[in-house]
Design goal:
Elements: E1 2-10, E2 13-14, E3 17-18, H1 19-31, E4 40-47, E5 60-66, H2 69-77, H3 79-91, E6 92-101
Antiparallel strand pairs: 1-5, 1-6, 2-3, 4-5
Helix pairs in contact: 1-3
Protein name: Dabb family protein
């Protein structure tokens, strides 16, 4: 089992929405991906609840599970995932990722 964890910092305003609104859009889009991509077992999105302007704080975190590295690679290039990536790139300022074997 492969876990794929991504954390983002969001722009205060982007695409005509606030950071909080874009976080909710991201959550909906990302959590819907397992319904569209068979290689993706699950996708869980958390939105930060802590206040502060700390450099260490991210706004949104995604945790996904795939059976294998091949499935993770297939998910990464899947057209439905790429549509979500296109939106996310417009609203984020920073991205961090970790992939590991569970």
């Amino acid at each position: 089992m492969i876990k794929h964890v991504v954390m983002w910092k969001l722009k205060e305003v982007a695409e005509g929405k606030t950071k909080d609104e874009n976080a909710e859009v991201m959550k909906k889009l990302l959590e819907d991906l397992p319904n569209k991509i068979e290689e993706l077992i699950s996708a869980e999105v958390g939105i930060n609840i802590m206040e502060g302007n700390d450099q260490a704080i991210c706004d949104v975190v995604l945790t996904t599970e795939c059976t294998s590295e091949e499935d993770l690679k297939a998910y990464a290039v899947h057209p439905d995932h790429q549509k979500v990536v296109d939106f996310i790139k417009k609203v984020v300022t920073e991205r961090k990722v970790v992939d590991y074997v569970k």
